[in-house]
Amino acid sequence: MSTRTLHVNGIDLAITEQGDGDPVILCHGFPGLGYSWRHQLPAIAGAGWHAIAPDMRGYGRSSRPTDVGAYDRATTVADMEGLLDALNVERAVFAGHDFGAHLVWDLARWIPERVAGLIQLSVPLTPRAPMRPNEISAFLARDHFFHMHYFQQPGVADEELDTNVDEFLRRVFWALSDTDRYLTCWEHPAVDNGYLDVLPPAPPLPWEWFSVDEFHYYVDEFTRTGFTGGLNWYRAADLVWEQNAELHDKLVLAPTVFIAGDRDPVLAMMGRDPLAAMASLVPDLRNVELIPGAGHFVQMQEPDRVNAKMVEFLESL
């Protein structure tokens, strides 16, 4: 693997890359980094592709604007289009996880001519919400703690997480790796609780899927950068919702594979049948793979299975 920094869309975007061939761009979410794809880069490169994992805007070694408006959808789409231009390529396969998956779904609607395929992890495409996301979050927070509502007030979550980097990362990685573990957060009221008040304690590292050294890479990076950039992706949710208004009924036509752990709490929190809703919006959905026993960080928890499905899809293009 090698690293470099490219200047795109008015910011510096740090990328880690491996291999030659057509590009596969891997977009992480919260609390992730380009490093979150460390198991996928060599597998994709070994299959004959150019694997590229950026630290997304707001994270790691990339620029971290403080203005929430700098994380709206027009801007984050322009980041990826600028990355394609900087790489001197017309199209790429895009992979997304968590908030990266939200962005990648939108890439296929905003700039479909530049998207050769989608590899989506953990977050299925669903119909447009009838209300602003922050209104929905506030409604849910009347009954229980809900992280997306807690993240909205600038400075509050930032201070809590920035001063407890090791403990927060340990707890959130552990909790999100299993449905029952994470949903214990909902047993607590929103009032007078921060995220660390509701996340369950985590056992000491190493875990089967997470080494001490890997964990400390995240701790070192977020200790240096803080969490505000990542939180701003949540705070821009209403802006993204507004900018997607004209695209809400537009089908995603790119060939797509969807991969998730069957213990992913995100799927559980989406209610009804989000996979059926996704199938109605993505006519070229070639496979839905639910990996037994894996939670939200499926690409780290079950890398061999995820890599096999990713390579299988790439070979079908």
TrEMBL record:
**Keyword Hydrolase assigned:** yes
Name all AB hydrolase-1 domain ranges: 23-127
A UniProt-annotated Pfam family: Abhydrolase_1
**EC number(s) recorded for this UniProt protein:** 3.3.2.10
Q: Which domain of life is it from?
A: Bacteria
Q: Known Gene3D superfamilies for this protein?
A: alpha/beta hydrolase (3.40.50.1820)
Q: Which GO terms describe its molecular function?
A: epoxide hydrolase activity
State the UniProt keywords alphabetically. Hydrolase
**What top-level class of enzyme does the UniProt entry assign?**
hydrolase
Q: What is this protein called?
A: Epoxide hydrolase A
Gene encoding this chain?
ephA_4
